[in-house]
Amino acid sequence: MKKLFNKGVKQYLKLRYNRIERMRNAPIEVQEKTFASLLHRAKDTEYGKKHGFREITDHASYIDNVPLVEYEDVKPYITRMMEGESDVLWPGIVKWYAKSSGTTNDRSKYIPVSEDSLYKNNVAASWDTMAITYHEDPDSEIFQKKSLIMGGALSPWEHDPKVTIGDISAILLHRMPAVGRPFYSPDFKTACLHDWEEKINLMSQICTKDDIVMFGGVPTWTIVLFKKILKQTGAKNMHEVWPSVRYYMHGGVGFDPYIEQFKEFFPDPSFKFFEVYNASEGYFGVQDMSNQRGMLLLLDNDVYYEFIAMEELDNDVPVSIPLSEVELDTNYAIVISSSAGLWRYMLGDTVKFCSIKPYRIEVSGRTKHFINVFGEEVMVSNTDKALAETLKTLSAVVSDYTVAPIFMNKVSKGGHQWMIEFEKAPASLAEFEKLLDENLQKVNSDYAAKRYKDLALKRLQIIPATSGTFLRWLASKGKVGGQNKIPRLFNSRKYVDELMNFVD
Questions:
Q1: In whole numbers, what is the pLDDT of the chain averaged over residues?
Q2: Residue ranges covered by each domain of the chain
Q3: Which of 154, 230, 420, 494 is least surrounded by Cβ atoms within 10 Å, i.e. has the fewest?
Q4: CB of 34 closer than 8 Å to CB of 304
Q5: Which class does domain 2-366 fall in?
Q6: CA–CA distance from 276 to each of 3, 148, 152, 279, 378 (Å)?
């Protein structure tokens, strides 16, 4: 029966692949149609009336009428939506919200998931991903065997139990049609458990009994799971556990630091890695050629894109351009408008176009200092706040600091390494490390999730820098002066490894 179902899905995906071809061959036409559709549907919302959606006819009039925003700008609207108001940013009442890493003032932020954004973006993009996979590999058996899922958690909003908040992965699992559920492992209750230790333990027992052909998720947790499975089964690699496994859909963090580790888990050269660009705010891209870097920008999925060259970001009114004006190998901040009710919303991600015909992108970083090696999305505002609380409690004083990742390897977990130059050192460095780690968890929910019971990340480490270390390093680069600052966070070990040479 499942074999017959897979055959039927394969025929459907052949037809659906025409959508992919339209995005490749008529990208500007597709984007203009999406743009007009979004404005038309939202013209009678509060936001649409306020910013004259009815009068907008093109990109020029759009940027004249609608401001660029970040989360803090739209948070008041979203809060009112969560409290039950309708027709605020998007038509109707929205009862589902994707929980994402917080901003300066909040531990978490909540992204509306309207029915349109759920089905016309997330679900549509998932089908597009399957169409690409089956086109690349016509013998795929994804709808004949099973795919491994490692979802996040859902919970009722504390102020209104009719509103549900949680990871976008958990929302998609919860809303998945019944016809798709037999093709996933483990059961959805296990996949969405809040307790990660219990979840990993149960998954290592359940999933080893299933014939897994595909899996997805952030590398951090999949590595934890695979190590447990190999220890439990005594297998040399994951092919011995799952002989049919063929694909890994990864995204959310840079994959380069993990590729060699995953090749040890999956040494078969025919195993394929597909990168996807799936954020809380939407599903934006998928790698459409497994042997070539870059993700096809999904242009027909209820998202209109704008781009701001990085050098523009410091201007009072940054100039944004439509897709038709982008150039290769330029770092752009990505701006979206979508059926989630996000209008000219700055994601915080930067992308580069590695191809124009068709439009393919690579995520190149963030618009601000950050560390997101393990999916923790730690920002400078988080580390500043956590450090300030720790210094206050333990009566210490810091003159400067920087933070870098400690990458996972075969024998040890990942984590964060802080280099701190103390003006007044704490009585106990170990106590300082412990409290700083706890405070960072309090201000960043994604970091707290990765640190849960030391399952994915170990506690942060501190390297005490001797007095003058940072100044000596800046002087070596000819960057002494008030406008030259230590990079607080960086997604590689570049700065910390350099600084180690200047520690007396």
A1: 91
A2: 2-366, 370-502
A3: 494
A4: yes
A5: alpha beta
A6: 27, 16, 17, 9, 21
